[in-house]
Amino acid sequence: MKILVVDDSATIRAGLRIQLTRMQHEVLEAENGERALEMWGAQRPDLVLIDVMMPVMDGYEAARQMRAAGQDEWAPIIFLSSMEADQDLERAIEAGGDDYLVKPVSAVVLSAKIRAMHRLETMRRRLLEVSRELAASNRQLEMLSRQDGLTGLANRRYFDACLATEIRRASRSGEPLSLILIDIDYFKLYNDAYGHQGGDDCLKRVAGCMQAVCQRAADLPARYGGEEFVLILPNTTPEGARIVANSLSAAIAALEITHASSKVNRFLTLSQGIATLPPGTELGPEVLIEHADQALYRAKERGRNRAEMHGETTAQGPMGLAANVQADAAMGLSAQAPASSSASSSTSSSTNPSANSSMNSSASSPANLSEGLPGAAPAGTPPGTGAGGTMQAGVGTVTGKAGT
Length: 404
Description:
- This protein is an alpha/beta fold.
- The chain folds into two domains: 2-128, 3-Layer(aba) Sandwich (Rossmann fold); 147-368, Reverse transcriptase/Diguanylate cyclase domain (Alpha-Beta Plaits, 2-Layer Sandwich), CATH 3.30.70.
- It has helices at residues 10-22, 33-43, 59-67, 86-95, 107-146, 156-173, 187-213, 238-255, 285-301, 321-330, 341-350, 353-357; strands spanning 2-6, 26-30, 47-51, 77-81, 99-102, 177-184, 220-225, 228-234, 270-277, 307-309.
- Strands 2-1-3-4-5 form a five-stranded parallel beta sheet, sandwiched between helices. A five-stranded mixed beta sheet has the order 7-8-6-9-10, sandwiched between helices.
- α2 packs parallel to α3 (59-67) and α7 (187-213) packs across α8 (238-255).
- The model is unreliable at 315-404 (pLDDT under 50).
């Protein structure tokens, strides 16, 4: 052990040094309490033998300051004093001492006390190790209780708690809160065609794309249940939420996950429902979820492979009517739209400063998301034609490669 001997008498220090060296201990020496504190911080002794009456700083004050350092820096302190009164022992213990020996101390008694203190110190350190291991295990269990076992995203339980918290925060701060409910198109058919292992791999890849588009620490991707996922987007306007939805659809399209049983595309696609809690609005979590679910249902009704916003009764609006017509044309549907809708929607999106300034930072360049995607159609290609799908900035629907 490394033992610090504190005494103002050089003779006593020398005698103790001889005894402790014979016991095969390393000895440090200090002539007063102030010097002892310096060595305590610099050398970290395993045990302290300290006198009571010393100049500059007595043993009581030195012991109190050593104990003030905290449990992680604890070491046994044994007082050595010529004072035999009971009050002296009591005062030493109150100052932070662990034992009190009266001088002169025999080598046998000193050796026994040191062994006893060493045993206590060993047990204390082991207890600290066990406590740290237990704390680490508890943190791991807490993390697992919040995490979906398959995808690694937040699970439904943690999502419910976070959504309630974010709604309260948005209400206090006066900021918008957006929610995107996501469903993999025809996932049951995908499972039937590629097996449950293939379905699990598909869910993991979708989860990876969700994590990739959520670049802000506050954004929360979660697995809602089965093939449904959800995104919580704090301080995000409807326009910003649309861009995140478009980014996610573009990321999924870039993976080109073959889905031969899909009725909308030969690659895997998503349907998304977006709902936003406007600033100053108080809604329960279940209401916001219901709004997103209604938007998701409408996206499925209109042919899937698209994102719809709650509150829009037609395909017109900030997401753009032309986008839905483009998706319908790619699927061979007969939806029609006025020729001016695309231009008017595009102009509205590009000239709305509030929309542009509040877009989610995790998808700040939506216009470039389709560049470099496999099979992307060249600029100027009419909607629904060409080998690959396109995505427009501020457009709520992403069309993949057209199936046959």
